[in-house]
Amino acid sequence: MVKLLQLVPLFLSAIPVTILARPYEKVFHIATLNNHHKNKDGVSTIFDEMNTDARITGVDEDELRLIQLDEDEPPKWMTVGERMDLYRKKTKFMDITDYPDLGDSYKAAERTRRQFPIQPQFQQEVESFINQLTTKHMEANLRKFTSFRTRYYRSNTGKESSNWLYKQILRIVEDAEDDVDVSVRKFKHPWTQSSIIARFEGSDPQKENEVVIVSAHQDSVNMWIPSFGRSPGADDDGSGTVTILEAFRVLVENGFKPVRPVEFHWYSAEEAGLLGSQAIAQDYAKEKKDVVAMLQNDMTGYVGNKPETFGVIVDYVDSDLTIFVKSLIEEYAAIPYVDTKCGYACSDHASWRKAGYPSAFTIETDFKDSNPYIHTSNDVIENLDFNHMLEFAKLSVSFAVELSYSN
Ligand SMILES: [Zn+2]
């Protein structure tokens, strides 16, 4: 059936649609649909979306999931099908089915509440790293990363893209000087795509249980056909993925030796309700790890037609950490920031907040001006600016260095 359908566009392109339209209404419907699904190059995508080479594994649309839509509201049971509708309504949510107790086991009150620095203090060290950042690797990496049909967390290509990313991280570590103490591991989930954690050990044994986290999410989604619709996810969140990979590369290649440990996280299943980051946050809370600070990079590449800025998210974040993030932008970036809001559970920082840890989130523009093509087959590299991503890489490097060295 699918193969026959794929022949229809060829057939249509050879015969004027008007001739076909009157006698064959069904065919006309397909042609109309076809016109609505052209990407920027005018290439039809709807039939491409029917290609099944990224077949999903084990989805039951009637399966019930526990969904949280706000911090103070009780969660609601919804089917997987209803959860998919949330993408289309652009409603952000947290799927807490498997992590209902996140935040209960290790409340913020039990931990040392530390002060963040008032100002950046390690300019010389930070500058030596950020001077080495380039757009070259980000561009090559994003081209490859967006070539997977979709990075949907339960798809085969979502697993393949994750394996590819893991190999790139591993290669950076393997090529490093022997005295850089970095390890890489997959954090496995019950679905096909793993999250990835790369960790720099710290030099102070007394701070071994502390950690600074820089993060992004690897999965993508096509909101119309989540399981196998084409979803390059260049901006959401291929951009954040390659931004923090570039920050990581420069730190590894230039022998970064943090005082407290620093970790880079690439989460799976953000789009399905922050599943990967909740699993990891829950694990860290259970082990009573002391997460000093977490910075999420979700969409770092789209500038739009307004003056270029960072969007600093100011709702559902740690306000003291966010003030420090602003001081890092002022000190190290070439562009200013604007305060903006994105609502409850709009990215993985929300999982760490729920676990009781300080988290912050920066995005490519004022949230209302951010990339309109996300979650479609048109979220492509051509809409992005690698120099803009470079500013976020500077922020990630400075966040890691400053918060690892500070008291
Ligand atoms: Zn995202």
From TrEMBL:
Matching CDD domains: M28_AAP
Cofactor dependency: Zn(2+)
Alphabetical list of Gene3D superfamilies matching this protein: Zn peptidases
Keywords annotated in UniProt: Aminopeptidase, Hydrolase, Metal-binding, Protease, Signal, Zinc
Signal peptide: 1-21
GO biological processes: proteolysis
Keyword Ribosomal protein: no
GO molecular function per UniProt: aminopeptidase activity; metal ion binding; metalloexopeptidase activity
EC number(s) stated in the UniProt entry for this protein: 3.4.-.-
Family, per entry: Belongs to the peptidase M28 family. M28E subfamily.
Record's protein name: Peptide hydrolase
Biological source species: Ambispora leptoticha
